[in-house]
């Protein structure tokens, strides 16, 4: 089963890290990711830029409206994501717990199963 593991954090904390702090956290995260990657179960991993760099397309009455940022009423923001291919939810939870232990910037990890779609592919 494919799972997306969404990492939420306080942006002001994470984006204020020094280069040394950032490198230390990323090193600890790589150590947790390595066994999953070696097993061929870790898919794309992404780190998102801060919400101040975001653009949102909102459904409008007639035409979609394009605005700066998500303007979410929350202190946490989606910081990044992992994709994993594991047999059970428990495996995804265990991986998320390990990530959480070494990532001082994260506040929570949300785990969601997902399906992959390939628009434009024709199956015969």
UniProtKB/TrEMBL annotation:
Residue intervals of the YCII-related domain: 1-114
SUPFAM superfamilies in UniProt: Dimeric alpha+beta barrel (SSF54909)
Cross-referenced Gene3D superfamilies: Dimeric alpha+beta barrel
One Pfam family it belongs to: YCII
Family to which this protein belongs: Belongs to the YciI family.
Protein name: YciI family protein
Organism the protein comes from: Rhizobium puerariae
